[in-house]
Amino acid sequence: LSTSRTREGASRHLRLLYKLIMGIRKVLAAALLLCFCGGTRYCVVKGFQQRRGVSSSHRRAHTSTWCRQTSKSPTELSAILPQPLEAAMLVRGGDVGAVTQSIVSGLQSGPFGILSLWSIASSVLVPLTLYRQGWSFSVGYGYSVMAMAISMYNILQPTPWTSPWYLVTSTMFYGFRLGSFLLVRQLVSKTKGDEMKATDKSARLQRIPFAVGVALFYSMMASPNLCALQASSPLGAVGACGAALAWAGALLEAIADTHKLIVKQQSKDDSGKFVGPTTWTYKLSRHPNYFGELLFWFGLWFGGAVATKNPIGLVASTIGLYGIYGIMTGATKRIDERQTERYGGQKKYDEWKSKVKAPLFPFVNKE
Question: Are 116 and 106 within 8 A, CB to CB?
Answer without folding.
Answer: yes
